[in-house]
Specification:
CATH class: Alpha Beta
Largest sheet: 11 strands, mixed
Structural class: alpha+beta
Oligomer: single chain
Distance between the termini: 33 Å
Strand order of the largest sheet: 1-3-2-8-10-9-16-17-15-11-14
Strand content: 15-25%
Shape: globular
Number of helices: 15
CATH topology: Amidase signature (AS) enzymes
CATH superfamily: Amidase signature (AS) domain
């Protein structure tokens, strides 16, 4: 193993690290075990790529080189002693800045949050730390994660690596950019209305929103429980590995499922989908995809059919849900931010303020009606998926649009919710849902295929995504993409 305890990494070793670090996380861990690669090399290479890419794309709110190198040296010592502390020992990861991370502030994209370090780890962060992950820094988010684009008063605009004039999506926009550009191997995001799948689709990476309560969540900021923590990465296998780690039990979350009740995520990853029945809904929740996006998704479904799956077109099972989700989102933001003073609201994102003020007028009866409507969504999705192994839809109806706003210019749309109709139904219903890169538009912008499973069938979603990834790999240019 090339060490970094007593001497800097050589130019030759650093070059090798760049190549090796682009392998999947499991392969990097195997290289550590064989003493073919050092965590210090991999982390130094990731930090070098961050320095090259981030000034233009703005994926990070915090980069802690000293802490990352300190953790990498500690990992190297464990590997040299033959005593790694977990399945991610020495693997570089990033954390979405909605998650408390001991020693780092949680700014959540807001000028109102303190810069004082957190004194605890959120549940998924704690599990990653226990598994030996090396923390590179925290990635950007819109203010308090409220939008499907990553524009915030604190950090400004996070840009798309395929075209920096365009949005990266949100709210896990920084995490998706970091995944696309190889700025670390695993990236922790969160999804309350599409916030993992939207940026994954816009940035051409894989991301999965786990089933309701699969991943423990503490501290829990909202009783509505729309948001699930989950992974983004370049590969399905990396996401499966990360999801397995962060699904470990945390007694601080009384709603989380017991670990023994869950099928391991990666056990059957390579078994294929021959004989599976997959429902395909090209129109969903009252909306359809643009023609170019639909064509890429149709081609992806043909690939799945070629792998032995029976693809069954189905009509929209839900009908329009935009008003329901909007009102639910208003209630969520009103609960979280109702205490803000007039002076504080003047410093917040105007779109977020409009949401919370609309939600402040809800009565208990109003909210109970929303809850009943949400139950109806869950019931209809459960009934549909009872007859199929999976449901497929486009991840999004459109490709990434110009940065700086919630909606494409001159689109006639009002908010991000108007174009997220393939995403938020599964936050209401709780099913596992993933976005898989499935090609590009004529302008070179990524398109995503969404795969959805029955409740707690996260492993089935990952298995189908892996089958598709193996059959139709998406070539990712070497970082930095922005230098082309």
């Amino acid at each position: 193993m090339v060490g970094c305890l007593s001497s800097p990494v050589s130019g030759r070793a650093a070059a090798r690290a760049v190549t090796e670090a682009r392998r999947d996380a499991a392969a990097v861990v195997r290289a550590y075990r064989a003493r073919e690669l050092s965590p210090c090399e991999v982390v130094d290479a990731a930090l070098a790529r961050i320095a090259a890419c981030d000034p233009r794309l703005n994926a990070f709110v915090l980069i802690d080189e000293a802490a990352a190198r300190r953790q990498a040296r500690a990992s190297e010592r464990r590997w040299l002693a033959g005593a790694p502390c977990g399945p991610l020992d020495g693997v570089p990861v990033t954390i979405k800045d909605m998650n408390d991370t001991h020693g780092w502030p949680t700014r959540a994209g807001s000028r109102l949050t303190p810069a004082t370090p957190a004194t605890r780890d959120a549940s998924p962060v704690a599990r990653l730390r226990e598994a030996g992950a090396v923390f590179l820094g925290k990635t950007t988010t819109p203010e308090f994660g409220w939008a499907g684009v990553t524009e915030s008063p604190l950090t400004g605009s996070t840009r798309n690596p395929w075209d920096p004039t365009r949005t990266a999506g949100g709210s896990s926009g920084g995490a998706a950019v970091a995944a696309a550009l190889d700025l670390g191997l695993l990236h922790l995001g969160g999804d309350g209305g599409g916030s993992i799948r939207i940026p994954a689709a816009f940035c051409g990476v894989f991301g999965i929103k786990p089933s309701f309560a699969r991943v423990p969540r503490y501290p829990q900021h909202s009783p509505l429980r729309l948001t699930q923590a989950g992974p983004l990465a370049r590969s399905v296998a990396d996401c499966a590995l990360m999801l397995e780690v962060i699904s470990a039990a945390d007694t601080r979350d009384w709603m989380a499922l017991p670990r023994g009740a869950l099928e391991p995520c990666g056990d059957r990853l390579e078994r294929g989908i021959d004989g599976w029945r997959i429902a395909y809904a090209p129109q969903f929740a009252g909306g359809a995809a643009h023609a170019e996006v639909r064509a890429r998704v149709d081609a992806a479904l043909e690939t799945l059919a070629g792998l032995g799956a029976d693809i069954v077109p189905v009509p929209d099972p839900l009908g329009p849900l935009g008003e329901l989700f909007t009102r639910y989102w208003q209630a969520a933001q009103a609960y979280a931010q109702h205490h803000r003073s007039h002076a504080e609201r003047a410093r917040m994102d105007a779109g977020l303020v409009a949401l919370l003020e609309a939600g402040e007028d809800f009565s208990f009866v109003d909210f109970a009606g929303l809850m009943r409507a949400r139950i109806g969504v869950g019931e209809r999705l459960t009934a549909l998926l009872a007859d199929y192994d999976l449901l497929a839809t486009p991840s999004l109806p459109l490709a990434a649009f110009p940065a700086g706003g919630q909606v494409p210019p001159a689109s006639g749309l009002a908010t991000w919710i108007d174009w997220a109709h393939f995403s938020y139904p599964f936050n209401l219903g709780g099913q596992p849902a993933a976005s898989c890169p499935c090609g590009f538009t004529a302008a070179g912008l990524p398109v995503g295929l969404q795969l959805v499973g029955p409740m707690y069938a996260d492993g089935a979603v990952l298995r189908a995504a892996r089958a598709y990834e193996r059959a139709a790999p998406v070539a990712m240019p070497a970082a930095p993409l922005v230098a082309r």
